[in-house]
Design goal:
This protein has 210 residues and is an alpha+beta fold. It has 5 helices and 10 strands.
Length: 210
């Protein structure tokens, strides 16, 4: 570990898997790829481990440390490539009802306003209707911006909940910060997740599927 950051080098990855611990400091929101041990021009990297050997991740934000448990971490560079664009942390729930505590944490600790009135997932989730993806906006209560992509399988009853630690400058302007804190939304995010192009995002408002 260097300056509070796990190193995504071969030796560092081995250490993360062995110790089942990983740390990253995003308190300044701008994070150089080199701070995580990447060499110049590195592409994204994905670390996956056995679901029985989860990695405990400590994320230092401006307002404190957020802890998560995962079997998969993905780091993606931005443009310019010397800085991290976002870090993905996966939570896999074979039974989606087990995700309720994580959904509450997203709302209460991370500040996802789109989840304020979201009802608990019940047995009706497994209704045989197939796969669906939801994107319940953004949260910045910690001072760091998180987004979520939720990938549901209503046939198997499983849910994959993917946090992305968003480190791009566009998420940290005064206007963006205020909009995210108030509504969990802002214009830049909608470039990628346009409700008119993605009907599944109606979940944010109607929650009709659960």
């Amino acid at each position: 570990m260097v300056n509070g950051n796990s190193q995504f080098t071969p030796a560092g990855i081995k250490d993360m898997k062995t110790s089942r611990q990983a740390s990253m400091d995003v308190s300044e929101h701008k994070l150089a790829m080199s701070a995580l041990g990447f060499t110049e021009g590195s592409d994204e990297i994905l670390i996956a481990t056995d679901s029985m050997k989860l990695i405990n991740v400590s994320i230092t934000t401006p307002n404190g440390v957020v802890t998560m448990t995962t079997d998969t971490i993905r780091v993606r560079p931005g443009v310019p490539t010397e800085y991290v664009d976002h870090i993905d942390i996966f939570h896999n729930f074979p039974d989606a009802q087990d995700a309720n505590a994580e959904i509450e944490r997203a709302r209460d600790e991370l500040g996802f306003r789109a989840l304020d009135d979201f009802p608990p997932i019940g047995p009706e989730f497994k209704d045989g209707s197939g796969k669906e993806t939801w994107v319940p906006g953004l949260g910045n209560k910690t001072g760091t911006v998180f987004s979520v992509e939720a990938m549901a399988n209503h046939t198997t009853g499983s849910l994959t909940w993917i946090y992305s630690i968003q480190l791009g400058d566009k998420y940290y302007t005064p206007e963006a910060a205020a909009s995210i804190a108030e509504t969990g939304d802002f214009d830049y995010f909608q470039i990628y997740f346009d409700r008119t192009a993605s009907p599944v995002l109606g979940w944010i408002y109607s929650q009709s599927r659960l």
